[in-house]
């Protein structure tokens, strides 16, 4: 032990073969319970792997990148809390990129895959351009996209059904007797902004309510920007009695502005958000919100990437996480109703 632990001593501590230790340390496909045993034994013995030498030999870095628009957004943090342990259990470190939804930064991340600084990438872009699609089609490492991409894009894809989610929330507001339902959206040149704006319009049509452009305000997916958009909407339409907000941060900004304006929530204006982040349950009043399964999407993306690293030739897979409505005080008052599964408010079983 004077020269430090070896794969032999690690194998003895883990109770596995030397070949198994070698496979784990070189990033070769191995059963997950074996990976955990070997990594735990290596940590206990203080084994330090020579990452540079190992990566040159195996062409593996044992690193995976996660590129997201805003590291401060609770929805991405929920994804991160699931991505990290899945990758760690397989012996991978996680490298984070916060792109601020700047397309050029996302393109740089995709270009950098050719430098082999990571073995794979999980990316959640708000905008998907032709340049994104070209680079995804020729990516030098496996990529999983969290979000919507066009049919036929040759990457694994995990997406939310925000269209159904918006309809769940608008239906809920309508069932509560609200008829002047405004929409505060993020930029409509983003994938979520376009989908959620269209879904709001469709939901009104399904309910027999007219679409009124004066009830729609476009801001950004941040609390302060959401607050400014809500203030503008209130000045234009002080008669609105409900707000459908494109994410929880916008909805929190709405609560700030409504409180400052002396408008009671939900008595005067009912408010619903999207993402059902930790902030939704902790806000005052607690926020009704549509969960888009951020945690589930993060876990599914990490699992798809690991599977792709082991089975590089398989066909791309798509996973869609269904939404669910979490009803709280911002729409129903102090006694929140239980969460409802998708379709429950439409009379589905």
TrEMBL record:
Pfam families linked to this entry: LacI (PF00356), Peripla_BP_3 (PF13377)
Family annotation (SMART domains): HTH_LACI (SM00354)
Q: Name one GO molecular function term.
A: DNA binding
Write the record's keywords in alphabetical order, separated by commas: DNA-binding, Transcription, Transcription regulation
| Disordered: annotated span | 311-349
Question: What range(s) does the HTH lacI-type domain occupy?
Answer: 5-58
| Transmembrane spans | none
Record's protein name: LacI family DNA-binding transcriptional regulator
Species of provenance: Nonomuraea corallina
Q: What is the lineage of its organism?
A: Bacteria, Bacillati, Actinomycetota, Actinomycetes, Streptosporangiales
């Amino acid at each position: 032990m004077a020269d430090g632990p070896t794969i032999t001593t690690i194998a003895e501590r883990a109770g596995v073969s030397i070949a198994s230790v070698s496979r784990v340390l070189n990033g070769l496909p191995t059963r997950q319970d074996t990976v955990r045993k070997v990594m735990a034994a290596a940590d206990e013995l203080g084994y330090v792997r020579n990452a540079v030498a190992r990566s040159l030999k195996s062409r593996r870095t044992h690193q995976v990148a996660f590129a997201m628009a805003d590291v401060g957004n609770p929805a991405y943090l929920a994804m991160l809390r699931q991505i990290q342990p899945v990758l760690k259990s397989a012996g991978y470190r996680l490298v984070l990129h916060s792109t601020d939804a700047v397309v050029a930064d996302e393109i740089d991340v995709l270009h950098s895959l050719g430098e082999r600084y990571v073995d794979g990438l999980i990316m959640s872009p708000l905008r998907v351009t032709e340049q994104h699609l070209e680079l995804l089609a020729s990516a030098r490492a496996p990529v999983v996209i969290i979000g919507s991409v066009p049919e036929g894009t040759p990457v694994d894809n995990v997406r939310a059904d925000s269209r159904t989610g918006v309809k769940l929330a608008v239906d809920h507001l309508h069932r509560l007797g609200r008829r002047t339902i405004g929409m505060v959206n993020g930029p409509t040149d983003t994938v979520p902004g376009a989908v959620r704006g269209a879904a709001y319009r469709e939901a009104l049509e399904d309910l027999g309510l007219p679409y009124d452009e004066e009830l729609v305000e476009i801001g950004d997916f941040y609390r302060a920007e959401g607050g400014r958009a809500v203030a503008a909407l209130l000045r234009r339409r002080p008669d609105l009695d409900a707000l459908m907000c494109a994410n929880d941060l916008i909805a929190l900004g709405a609560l700030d502005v409504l409180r400052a304006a002396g408008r009671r929530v939900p008595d005067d204006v009912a408010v619903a958000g999207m993402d059902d982040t930790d902030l939704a349950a902790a806000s005052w009043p607690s926020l009704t919100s549509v969960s888009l399964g951020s945690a589930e999407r993060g876990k599914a993306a990490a699992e798809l990437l690991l599977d792709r690293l082991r089975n590089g030739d398989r066909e791309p897979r798509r996973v869609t996480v269904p939404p669910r409505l979490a009803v709280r005080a911002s729409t129903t008052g102090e006694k929140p109703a239980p969460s409802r599964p998708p379709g429950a408010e439409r009379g589905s079983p």
